[in-house]
Amino acid sequence: MALELVGGAVLGAVVGELFKVILDLGERAIHFSPVLKNISFKLKAIIPLVNQIDELNEFLDYPKEETEKLRDLMDEGRRLLLRCGDVKLGNLDYLKKPFYTKKLRDLDTELRSFMDILMLQMSRDQKKNLKSMNQLMEILCRIDSRGGSSKPVDLIVSPCLVPQLQEETVGLEKPVKELKVKILKNEVRMLVVTAPGGCGKTTLALKFCHDKEVKDIFQGKIIFVAVSRKPDLKLIMKNIIESLRGIQLPDWQSDEHAFCYLELWLKQTSQKPILIVLDDVWNGLESECLLDKLSQMPCCKILVTSRFSFPRFSESYYLEPLNHENAMKLFLRSASLDNGSSKLPDEETLEKVIGGCKRLPLALKVIGRSLSRRPTLVWRVTGRNLCRSGSIFDSEKELLECLQSSLDVLDDKMVTKESFMDLGSFPEDQRIPASTFIDIFTVLYGEDENEAMVTLHELSSRSLLNSATTRKYDDEFYEEQFFSQHDSLRDLAIYLMNIEPIEQRKRLFLEMDGNDFPKWWVEQERHPSNARLISITTDERFSSSWPDMEAPKVEVLILNLQSRTYNLPGFIKRMNNLKALIITNFGCFPTEVTSEDNQPFNCLQNLERIRFERISVPLFTNNQSLKPLRNLQKISFVMCKFGKTFIHISSQISELLPNLVEISIDLCNDLSAVPNGVCDIVKLQKLSITNCHGLTSLPEDLGKLINLKKLRIRCCIYLAELPESTTKLRELVHLDISHCLDLVKLPEKIGELHRLEKLDMRHCTSLRKLPSSIRNLKNLKSLTLVCDEDIAELLKTVAPRLWKQVKVQEEEANLDWLCL
């Protein structure tokens, strides 16, 4: 049994060798038996500890300095014991017994001392871990209540936060109780909530997660993951582990590595139960692999919502439709008929509508809101049309036909209805940035961004869309506003699109599984399309060459991708009418986008808007044959990688983009400087650089942008100052320098910005002095500050007149967008 304690790891092996020497000595060292027993006892206690330390050091790549002393001690002890084994009775060596006995006792003392140190180190490490977790919780609480910490941190906000319930639920009290009884049993590891789409499975899961008893049991360790039809297992596991550990992790080489890491981490650290909610799991090999692996994780309870039951892995809970009473209550609330502000339709019509919705929460909410304050005739027509459908559970088609009634009432608002259809362009369960929709809307419908936002909010008010913002104090900054669509509503947009023949469709949505193209596309050598919008979605396995396509009328091209490298379709060159190009990588790391001749945009002279997200920027190269994009008005970069080429061709930027009106750069951490060439784009009106933590300076020639109206340099935490030439921006009306933590001063002549109407200096914590010229800001309507009374006091001293207009406003943070 003793030999089983001997480890084979690096440090454990050294300790094990010493223990083995003691066993091998046997009766040869009987003269030293008492002290050897003491040493043997301590080694038995040390071996399991050092083996564990070896595993963790190797796995976590920790330094090994603290255990080097023990390694030396073991080597010295092994040599000492071998010499003791040679001491025999009656031999002159026996005279050496006192000497060796003292040496062995010294070894025993040192082992005891090391054991005490080892226990202290383990206690220290545990307290360090506890302190880190406490700091993480404090940071999250600070972010949640105050809109962000005053200093940057390396810890991350959990990517698997449980979304808040957007509104009061109806009829879920009983299902929540039944779920608790089932899933909290010791023998139950996984429970699947199953029902057709639109029955409220996700809402039930959220209600369960926010239940007080559930939160007390799991004590904050609740993970919520949207899985969808084509799950990326590595990304899902990465998000789960990052949510549990609170730190950012590298990309995994394989799914198996991710599962092994989670299992090992849970075994080492987990003492309290963890609840993992997997929302919207579809049938398939990837999903079965995910369920199989997670069901084996220690200390985990798995709650699954799905349209499938997965009997091989767990028992199921079938979510029934609402009863008639609750269905009526939800519908009346959605149609604004529960507060007496609107006249109730006749009972027969009301019953027809509710019956046609088949008591499904999604249908009740969507159709209820679509009929709110509509004429009685519209109610009657809708009720008659809904009653013609069969059972909503016969097929998904029945649900889609039911939801279609909510769009029929938008016939007098065709742009809103068409915009709903456009939203099907984005992958399932992915958040939709408002700024991306604005690019599509302005091109297709010729309206401005304000009209686009009105349309989005109207769709949201009708429950055709969910909305969230990262912060709620700046309605004009659309990069912080996001939307999402229920899977069934996205299916409705696709269903309605597919009714028409391919050649006649206004929009074309193509989703590839690996390298499998739709048959109709492959069968014809050059398939024609008259669509104005084309969306092509590929996954991380895509690596094929593109079939050809003729799309002369396309104005918006959306490329959704996940692979590390991506070759642009060659047929883009013939899209002469293309006005908006949106390339979004939904993977973890920037995609390297290439084309056959490295000139993907030379033929796209009508381009007005370009948006890149998680892309290694392909536009800015040293290629001298690039043609100017004279019609380009807006270009956006989100989480992109620029590299050095962006700086190197600064002299060409104004020539390539002579009529650019807006530049937006967000979350691009490798952007260390803005090229001076940008300052030569004299028509530029909006420049937004946000959350770029690598940015340390702005061009000295910034003042050359004589038409600039909005300058937003938000959350660039290492930017020390604004160039003095900023004061030459005489058309500037909005200056936002909030969360620039290292900003130490403003330009001395800032008072010359006479048209300035809004100056945002939230969290400029290093700003200790204001220039006296600030009192000359005559048109300043509001100076908005957050949690920075010191700056307000400075302003009171320097410019008492302006101080009276100061609005000290708390910034309301909202983390729901992370869960869209």
Automatic annotation (TrEMBL):
Specify the protein name.
Answer: Probable disease resistance protein At5g66900
Q: Keywords of this protein's UniProt record, alphabetized?
A: Plant defense, Repeat
Domain of life of the organism encoding this protein: Eukaryota
Repeat among keywords = yes
PANTHER family in alphabetical order: PLANT BROAD-SPECTRUM MILDEW RESISTANCE PROTEIN RPW8, RPW8 DOMAIN-CONTAINING PROTEIN
Q: Where is the RPW8 domain?
A: 1-153
Family assignment from sequence similarity: Belongs to the disease resistance NB-LRR family.
**GO biological process per UniProt:** defense response
* Entry GO MF terms: ADP binding
What are the TM regions of this chain, as residue ranges? none
Q: Per its UniProt record, what InterPro entries does this chain match?
A: LRR_dom_sf, LRR_R13L4/SHOC2-like, NB-ARC, P-loop_NTPase, Powdery_mildew-R_dom, WH-like_DNA-bd_sf
